[in-house]
Design brief:
Pfam families: 3HCDH (PF00725), 3HCDH_N (PF02737). It comes from Streptomyces thermogriseus. Keywords: Oxidoreductase. The structure is a single chain. By secondary structure, this protein is an alpha/beta fold. The protein has 11 helices and 8 strands. The chain folds into 2 domains: 178 residues, Rossmann fold, CATH 3.40.50.720; 86 residues, N-(1-d-carboxylethyl)-l-norvaline Dehydrogenase, domain 2 (Orthogonal Bundle). Helices cover 45% and strands 13% of the residues. Strands 3-2-1-4-5-6-7-8 form an 8-stranded mixed sheet. Helix 1 packs across helix 2, helix 7 crosses helix 9 and helix 7 crosses helix 10. The radius of gyration is 19 Å and the shape is globular.
């Protein structure tokens, strides 16, 4: 199967990044979300991302306007009927995801693969609410999507080898490689990363060090490109909190309990880069 048109469900930070990467690699994209307001914001974010990519890669790639023209912005889920592959990127909330899959399963052709872009939710659980569990696979993209060459791919209980091969071909068409792991909440990357970020939040909460110093230690002592709290701000503290809560619920283990400071910051709207302030300021 050729992946001429790709459905991207969810036009938040990750959905915009996936749509940009797909359009830059020659795919037509149907980008779906609930409101025109969300889609207008996605248009602005895409324009900014495409201009930045053009500046960083002068003389390479298509004109930003050409790339932008490959993306169709819509609130009409029925347009996913023309998709050859679907990548879902909605919030890390099971009730939201379940409703999305029940809806798109009735619209998208039966042979089309669903890729669940999640950091913690079980792929097997997602597959169970569709009529195609063998064609449901986890595809955990990293942020910013266009700049990251590797994707964590998750095999659900019913995911077939053919679906994994399809996923590999799809990602190769985006210029990406993948590592396939088994379906346990958090998988590899976020089972470790969310614990690290949550514990870093506890360090700030307990007055052990400032957010800036926590990040500086990781960058200067371990040669990390970003500290854990800078990473949290990039991902979004609301997404971090939901991911930690999923891990806590899934494993019933106190080591995954969310830091009260993290809950407080999310309640205050301090979500990181997307709100202008999190553990660091971006205004």
């Amino acid at each position: 199967m050729e992946f001429t048109t790709v459905g991207v469900v969810g036009a938040g930070v990750m959905g915009v990044g996936v749509a940009q990467n797909l359009a830059q690699t020659g795919h037509r994209v149907v980008l779906v979300d609930l409101t025109d307001e969300i889609l207008d914001n996605a248009r602005r974010e895409l324009s900014t991302g495409l201009r930045a990519h053009a500046l960083l890669n002068k003389g390479a790639g298509a004109d930003p306007a050409q790339v932008f023209g490959r993306i169709e912005f819509t609130t009409d889920y029925e347009l996913l009927a023309k998709a050859d592959f679907v990548v879902e990127n909605v919030t890390e909330d099971w009730d939201v995801k379940r409703k999305v899959y029940e809806r798109i399963d009735r619209i998208v052709r039966p042979e089309v693969v669903f890729a669940v872009n999640t950091s913690a939710i079980s792929i097997t659980r997602v597959g169970s609410v569709t009529t195609r569990p063998e064609r449901v696979i986890g595809m955990h993209f990293m942020n910013p999507v266009p700049m990251k060459p590797m994707v964590e791919v998750i095999r659900g209980h019913h995911t077939t080898p053919e679906t994994i091969d399809t996923a590999r071909r799809f990602l190769a068409g985006m210029g990406k490689d993948c590592i396939v792991v088994e379906d346990m909440p958090g998988f590899v990357s976020n089972r470790v990363l969310m614990l690290t970020i949550n514990e870093a939040v506890f360090l700030v909460q307990d007055g052990v060090a400032s957010a800036a110093d926590v990040d500086r230690i990781f960058k200067t002592c371990f040669d990390h490109r970003m500290g854990p709290l800078e990473t949290a701000d990039l991902i979004g503290l609301d997404t971090i909190l939901k991911s930690v809560e999923v891990l806590y619920e899934s494993y019933n283990d106190d080591k995954y309990r969310p830091a009260p400071l993290l809950k407080k910051m999310v309640a205050a709207g301090l979500l990181g880069r997307k709100s202008g302030e999190g553990f660091h300021k971006y205004r």
